Amino acid sequence: MYQLQLKNISKTFKRNSKKQLVLDNINLNVKKSEFIAIVGPSGCGKTTLLRIIMGLEHPSKGSIKLDDKNIKEANSALGMVFQEFSLLGWRTVLENVTFGLEMKKLKKEEQMKIAEEYIRLVVLDDFKEHYPCELSGGMKQRVAVARALATNPQVLLMDEPFGALDAQTRNTLQTELIKIWRKTRKTVIFITHNIEEAIFLAQRIVILSKIPSTVERIVENKLPYPRDKLAPDFIELKCDITKHFYDSKDK
């Protein structure tokens, strides 16, 4: 049984009295605890698709089901991590992580216990009383991940969360994310434009076409964890997917 089901998702935007079809009949079934990466050309609607899954946008056509129930609006069973850190500057790390728990009206003691657990998980124990302005970009994104996980979502949606970080920090957080995923067994849908990142992280890689976007190909990634970006089979898969992108551009 699939945990998340996208059926015939299409999205049309109106721009200057003209209609533009951005997503065209997207179908995808996701199993519980699966790690999915979605890649595609810039502007192909990856973020729009994620916002539709989250319930922040409505599809023009099609349906999304989580555990066989339709998603029509923002849902606490889905957690979101954006490329922008989206932290509250006037709140400490601990207070940022408790924010979603406050919305759930949990007791203060329980909020603190849960928040501290996830702060430890992202290795920020020594920074829980710091404010966002005192943190590096990588640390801010760890806080965002902890905040999303603290509300115990069934599915974690991540929209190019490491895209604005330097290469070294990005590599570190990729490795840490895999450790967190393997420990929590959350279902993850990860948007990226970086093929190497998708291969390093995901069990399946969904390749979208240029707009109007369709699912061109789904790649089963059977490389064992932890993955080595310099291993021959990793490089071979990277070349295969990269070639697919170049071939698609020529069509």
What does this entry look like structurally?
There is one protein chain. The chain has about 250 residues and is an alpha/beta fold. It folds into two domains: about 5-75 and about 155-250, 3-Layer(aba) Sandwich (Rossmann fold); about 85-150, no CATH class. It has helices spanning about 45-55, 95-105, 110-120, 135-150, 165-185, 195-200, 230-250, and strands at about 5-15, 20-30, 35-40, 60-65, 70, 80, 155-160, 185-190, 205-210, 215-220. The strands form two sheets. A six-stranded mixed beta sheet has the order 6-7-8-3-9-10, sandwiched between helices. Strands 2-1-4-5 form a four-stranded antiparallel beta sheet, covered by helices on one side. The chain is globular, with a radius of gyration of 18 Å.
Features:
six-stranded mixed β-sheet; 7 helices; four-stranded antiparallel β-sheet; alpha/beta; 2 domains; single chain; 251 residues
Brief rundown of the structure:
With 251 residues, the chain is of the alpha/beta class.
Please identify which CATH superfamily of the largest domain we are dealing with.
P-loop containing nucleotide triphosphate hydrolases
CATH class (first level) name of the largest domain:
Alpha Beta
Helix content: 25-40%
Based on the coordinates given, report the CATH architecture of the largest domain. Answer: 3-Layer(aba) Sandwich
What's the average pLDDT? 91
- State the major sheet: 6 strands, mixed
Given as residue ranges, the uncertain stretches (5+ residues, pLDDT < 50) are: none
The third-level CATH topology of the largest domain is: Rossmann fold
Helix/strand order, N-terminal first: EEEHEEEHHHEHEHEEH
Continuous helix count: 7
Looking across the biggest beta sheet, what order are the strands in? Answer: 6-7-8-3-9-10
**General shape:** globular
- In whole angstroms, the N-to-C terminal distance is 36 Å
Rg on CA atoms, Å: 18 Å
